[in-house]
Specification:
homotrimer, alpha+beta, 60s Ribosomal Protein L30, Chain: A, five-stranded mixed β-sheet, about 30% helix, about 25% strand
Chain lengths: ~150, ~150, ~150
């Protein structure tokens, strides 16, 4: 299956990137690498998925939020590809910033919600390096923020 | 206006990079990319701007600290360019580590103090991807630390 | 001395990378750059070195944990090099995530345990850019997590 057949089979709809909440842009390409800005967790209506893992957000809810961030990242990446995700050669790196209490130690499990979707969509090309850790807080109180580096063909 | 005319118009004086506070260097170039180390917020006399957003540092003070970090980053980047910032093709990426309380959610607004100055100095070449989030603490208690990736021509 | 003579002189034994604790891979190469996933601090038997700087882990213990992470990173990097670390042209960048209390401000000193070992092993090629900061928490409670970017020849 092609990337878009997989996205359709997963019942995912890609959106145009949201406007950045600050004086920056959502992605920059340098050579074959695309650096995507940190994307915060949002609902389908654009409202922020706020909260803290270990307090008022469960690990499973965190995984769903991480999955939602990847859908937004794919919308941005599609724009970086000039509209065609088939140009993605490799997802290189994720950095996953999980809004956590000091006691919460499952940042890696939360982040699997992001990593798994990339694997489903891109197959071997979706296998990425990553770092996941617990942060004090994210902009607008988002329960997770993820940035990504991808390589284009 | 050239980059240096803009820097002069903004009444900014660039300095040589400070000595690293550890067993590392302030930047490494690989291919066309320059990776700059995390720079912590400092006053013009080199003393650390310490404190925590949400506690004893206001959002506006944080923006000024972020701006001060960018001035230091530009001094380092100038050295990486062999003395001529006109060689900068693009500011690629910022990562902004804001020393925050658990309740503070304006890391993006604080970081605009950095992003805006890069836009003023470099114009379109200063439009960068970025991630901003709240950290538990920074080295020496700095209220903000920023790392940067830039592309040289 | 060659890299492997230095590793032997330091009485270090490299291991194959541990299996990732999630749906990702331990490194991805893109062009000449290798992006290594965040590696968490582990004992020689593979158990996690957990704890928080400023609470139940001293700065010196943190430095030893940082050194242990670099040994694991070198094992992964060796695999990325097809078995020969002599292919490493430069250690480009470290990001050091130190599990900290709000009062602990020596993340840079802890991270020197990582940076110093890279200098001992690689000499000038081991001089890297870096960022170090205090995080709320790491996966599995690890006291430190480090990610790395390296350039291959």
């Amino acid at each position: 299956m092609s990337v878009y057949e997989k996205i359709k089979a997963l019942d995912i709809t890609l959106k145009a990137p949201a406007a950045p909440v600050g004086a920056y842009v959502m992605y920059v390409q340098s050579g074959n690498l695309v650096f995507l800005s940190g994307h915060i967790s949002k609902n389908a209506d654009g409202s922020v998925i706020a909260g803290k893992l270990g307090a008022n957000v469960t690990t499973e809810q965190g995984q769903q939020a991480a999955r939602a961030v990847v859908i937004d990242l794919l919308g941005t990446l599609q724009e970086a590809c000039g509209g065609d995700l088939a140009r993605v050669k490799r997802i290189v790196k994720l950095t996953s910033l999980v809004n956590s209490t000091p006691e919460f130690t499952e940042q890696h499990i939360v982040t699997n919600g992001a990593s798994s979707l990339l694997g489903e969509v891109f197959g071997d090309a979706g296998k990425h390096a990553r770092a996941a850790f617990g942060v004090m807080q994210n902009p607008l109180g988002a329960c997770i923020e993820i940035e990504m580096v991808a390589e284009l063909a």
